[in-house]
Amino acid sequence: MKIAVAQNNYHIGNFQSNFQKMKIAIERAKANKADLVLFSELSVCGYPPRDFLEFDDFISRCEEVIQKIAALTEGIAVIAGCPARNPRIEGKDLFNSAYFIENKEVKTVVHKALLPTYDVFDEYRYFEPNREFHVVHFQGKKIALTVCEDIWNVGNDNPLYTLCPMDEIIKELPDFIVNISASPFDYNQTENRLRVLRANAERYRLPIFYVNHVGAQTELIFDGGSYVMNAKGKVFDELSYFKEDYREYILEEIIESENTLHHDKMPVLSKIEKIHDALVLGIEDYFRKLDFQKAILGLSGGIDSAVTMALAVKALGKENVMSVLLPSEYSSQHSIDDSVELCKRIGSSYDLISIKETYQAYLETMQPVFTGTEFNIAEENIQARIRGNILMAYSNKFKYILLNTSNKSEAAVGYGTLYGDMCGGLSVLGDVYKTQVYELAAYTNREKEIIPKNIIDKAPSAELRPNQKDSDSLPDYAVLDEVLFQYIEQRQGPKELVKMGFEKTLVDRVLKLVNQNEFKRYQTPPVLRVSPKAFGMGRRMPIVGRYLS
Amino acid sequence: MKIAVAQNNYHIGNFQSNFQKMKIAIERAKANKADLVLFSELSVCGYPPRDFLEFDDFISRCEEVIQKIAALTEGIAVIAGCPARNPRIEGKDLFNSAYFIENKEVKTVVHKALLPTYDVFDEYRYFEPNREFHVVHFQGKKIALTVCEDIWNVGNDNPLYTLCPMDEIIKELPDFIVNISASPFDYNQTENRLRVLRANAERYRLPIFYVNHVGAQTELIFDGGSYVMNAKGKVFDELSYFKEDYREYILEEIIESENTLHHDKMPVLSKIEKIHDALVLGIEDYFRKLDFQKAILGLSGGIDSAVTMALAVKALGKENVMSVLLPSEYSSQHSIDDSVELCKRIGSSYDLISIKETYQAYLETMQPVFTGTEFNIAEENIQARIRGNILMAYSNKFKYILLNTSNKSEAAVGYGTLYGDMCGGLSVLGDVYKTQVYELAAYTNREKEIIPKNIIDKAPSAELRPNQKDSDSLPDYAVLDEVLFQYIEQRQGPKELVKMGFEKTLVDRVLKLVNQNEFKRYQTPPVLRVSPKAFGMGRRMPIVGRYLS
Questions:
Q1: Does B23 participate in catalysis according to the annotation?
Q2: Which has the closest alpha carbon to B470: B300, B271, B280, B216?
């Protein structure tokens, strides 16, 4: 039996484009005499469709695509992901399903049983869980057809569900497992995925075809990396990361295989390489799927904007990235020089626009109101907001998307100006701690120095008042980032943090800053997610709470 | 048996304040020789605690409060809402539970079975559903103790769940139902609630004590309105709306009661009165719970800012609401005059700050870049963003919270400037359509003309270019709002809308505007929710989608 694995980059709600990609794969598979083509979870509509699922019209369009796919399946079978209506009146109206289509007919529809509802996932918001488990019969073989999370309850210390779907399906003695997934990237995900697939292969002694989605959907980046694994838990093959791929396999060869075959050929990416490639794909897909070409950003002379620019250039091409230098009276000459040097090295355009006059105009306008008050955060923020206004003026005039350059450390503690440097259509580094931004800079410079050394070496500063340094207001980033990681990613509380050896006053101060600044993060751009816990849809906090704040 | 119903305004994570309120009620009930005191769902920590629930420290603090409550229960019983740990390794780590505490001891903990996971609710994100159902024995009576949603699966056309907890509990022949709730307000909720309680009373022939939460938690407004209903489905009593309340009942009187007793005495609020009172509570609690006193807002001379101001004055007092008039060269004299008149009538402070000079400074600064281009949305938005910057400068200098004045119609179609008039800590009217804003204005003026007639009568305009009118860019609000309501609240698609009689070109245009402007709404302040479908946490849409856009 020849099985084709199609790892495509879908676009949510873009039925035309999604169908086109599936059609091309089906035709290629037919030409190569494949028996079965596998597509990823909710491939028909893209993942996650979110509240579009609540529209009957949206579901009807999904069903139309299934019919169009069915029309292509003469002499071939297809497994495609698509929502299915729940015929029972009780329960949620939909299932998250795998359609098994053969010879112009939907032969069976298998529903997902385990509905991830944590972090960025909201599946029980939409879907009824499956409660009946059967294999799919095809050409004398029995397929254990599963959807994503359904194989993730195996081999866990803390299983999220009381049910294990494969424990049910195995009773019908399947020959192999197919798992269609939309499993978003984070820097630990490759290892987690491999662990889960191995646990399944070993528990059920079956080969697995794991088909993942690739491509970014706003904040979520799907990294692809579909797997074919033999019954001994050895990786037979691994599809590309961060790009589309298509491969064909002979089932019998996998069943007979003893060892890891192709896997050794795949380069193993380091954590920072993965983050880098994910961010590049995240930027690229954001622009392409929104039909925008050009990015703009403010270059401050600091490392965050420099790294954001390098990533944007990688994603969009240097001709599509415009930088603006926006010095004030508090900007140092090196900020301008270093930014100009960066643009020259990359070969991309920049403008230099002084904000001095506009800032003076504000001060004069506010003079009757501010008279007798001390220079404080109000004057600092006016400058940051002038920059935001000017960058948005470029954006509105020339159809640029403004890239936000804030990092995760700043976003966490609220070290940034709402409507100022927190502006933008997309936050590139909002899930990257400051210490990781340095790693990204080093990675960018791995072959030659693209980001000037001076930008990397200087002490971080917002330059909103004379001689300002981040370290005036914040703990050292090395310590701050560690506390933030333990609190945000690891959900450690104040007691646990003190037990780890962090000073109590530091812990209290950092946690209070994080919790008090929820209101700022609420209004910031979507953040490209690369960690297991990013700000945005995966971290939902009350604004008007009073906990550690 | 004497039962006290305590309808309190809790604060998420503010364990000290929540416990204090519960303690006062318990002591009052003891003094009055009550046998049982009822508190609402998750009363210990406030509802919804959201991802705070993922912190072990947070749960430990909840448990500490339960112990402190238990210490108060000599000679009395208490039902309090609090998360409980799931002792099984499989499934989610917590339950959403009702603690039955008597004589210094937690006697039993009843878990919620139906976990709302739709609209603003995310309960399956945190909680494992209950699967075992028993009555609670107390003083020879059997209590059917349920948590919120557990009684909401009765009498529905489209039940969301496959289980009905009361159908199980009824087998043990309970004497009455207690339901502890945190059921947020929308303008249909009183009727829905009454319908559901009646359906339960009639199906099980039991009296019901329904205890709701009151108070606002960021965007969610809990309206109180706790009920006591007899076994015939007649309302025995109804607690206050939009404020705390405490009452005591003799169970036997309710059991023996024939008809509606106190209900007729309660004033029945009109839809617009409810919205008005909800918004006032929403503003009040946002400020009080964040420890802020003073609001600031920009007065444009239009109806949205006028109504926002009137609501803020109602909530915070006229001495705590500061208005700023920010005319540009495109502002008409009547905008200034009408705004000044409004402030004078209300007796609150205002400043008049011209943005002309600052705008000129921007134009001069941008001149090298904008040369040869036409005046367009870029110049319009610069003005709106200057206003945002100035209002935020007030906020930063003097510790005001900026109130956002955008209405739901504008937010829906993206008729507003991100980082300009879309700034603010809280969106007061973001769930109120323009046509409803007029109703709120009329309601505000019901006794005397507070909002000048001229503000109500003039054609809406953003005044960002000469002679601009909203109607240049948008359909008439009467039609627009109807399409928006059908699309947003009713989830009708393009085909259904055309079938209703709306023009196809209009429908396509409006739906496209709504879907394309998701990126703007993503970055706007939290919206006080008054409808069954508000922008924000209850409506989750992809930004990078391609559906009807």
A1: no
A2: B300
Q: Are B251 and B140 in contact (CB under 8 A)?
A: no
Neighboring chain A residues of B496 at a CB cutoff of 8 Å: 56-57
**Chain B residues within an 8 Å CB radius of A389:** 362, 382, 385-386, 389, 419
Task: At B335, list the tokens.
Answer: 């905008």
Asked about A41 being catalytic, the answer comes back as: yes
Instruction: Choose the closest CB to B58 out of A89, A525, A547.
Output: A547
Which DSSP string corresponds to B142-196? EEEEEEGGGGTTSS-SS-S-S--HHHHHGGG--SEEEEE---B--TTHHHHHHHH
Q: Do the Cβ atoms of B381 and A392 come within 8 Å? A: yes
The SS3 of residue B316 is helix
pLDDT digits (tens, 9 = 90+) for B234-293: 999 999 999 999 999 999 999 888 765 555 556 788 999 999 999 999 999 999 999 999
pLDDT of residue B175: 97
Distance CA B288, CA B10 (A): 12
3-state DSSP call for residue A520?
helix
Angle at A59 between CA A55 and CA A60, to 5 degrees: 110
ipTM of the modeled complex: 0.96
**Is residue A303 a contact partner of residue A456, using CB atoms and an 8 Å limit?**
yes
**Closest by Cα among A219, A114, A160, A118 to A491:** A118
Question: How big is chain A, counted in residues?
Answer: 549
Exposed/middle/buried for B421, CB within 10 Å: 0-12, 13-18, 19+? buried
Q: Which of B213, B357, B365 to mutate to test the interface with A (most CBs of A within 10 A)?
A: B365
pLDDT tens for each residue of B20-32:
999 999 999 999 9
Looking at the DSSP bridge assignments, the partners of residue B38 are B5, B79
> Cβ A161–B91 below 8 Å, yes or no?
yes
The answer to whether the bond into A174 is cis (omega within 30° of 0) is: no
**With contact defined as beta carbons under 8 Å apart, do B358 and A362 qualify?**
yes
- In our burial notation (b when 16+ CB lie closer than 10 A, e otherwise), range B84-98 reads beeeeeebbbbbbbb
**Angle, alpha carbons B299-B301-B304 (nearest 5°):** 70
In the three-class reduction of DSSP (H, G, I as helix; E, B as strand; rest coil), residue A8 is classed as coil
Contact A369 B397 (CB under 8 A): yes
Chain A nearest-CA residue for B385: A389
Q: What pTM, to 2 d.p., does this model score? A: 0.97
User: What whole-number distance in Å separates Cα of residue A209 and Cα of residue A111?
Assistant: 17
- How far is it, in rounded angstroms, from Cα A265 to Cα A262? 6
Record: contact A218-B376, CB cut-off 8 A: no
**Mind giving me the DSSP string for A448-495?**
S--S-HHHHHSPP---SSTT--HHHHS--HHHHHHHHIIIIIS---HH
Across the interface, of B49, B286, B382, the residue whose CB is closest to A389 is B382
Q: Measured between alpha carbons, how far is A354 from B361 in angstroms, rounded to an integer?
A: 11
Bridge-partner residues for B278, per DSSP? none
Put simply, the answer to whether B396 touches A373 (Cβ < 8 Å) is: no
Q: Rounded distance, CA B524 to CA B404, Å?
A: 9
Q: Has B41 been annotated as catalytic? A: yes
Determine which one of A21, A41, A289, A518 is catalytic: A41
Q: Is A272 left (phi over 0), alpha (psi -120 to 50) or beta?
A: alpha
Of A55, A91, A160, the CB nearest to B493: A55
| Per-residue pLDDT at B155 exceeds 90 | no
Residues of B in contact with A118 (CB under 8 A): 125
Identify the residue among B283, B519, B546 best suited for mutation to test binding to A, counting A beta carbons within 10 A and taking the highest: B546
What is the reported pLDDT for A264? 53
* Inter-residue contact A494 to B57 (CB < 8 Å): yes
Give the chain A residue nearest B524 (alpha carbons).
Answer: A523
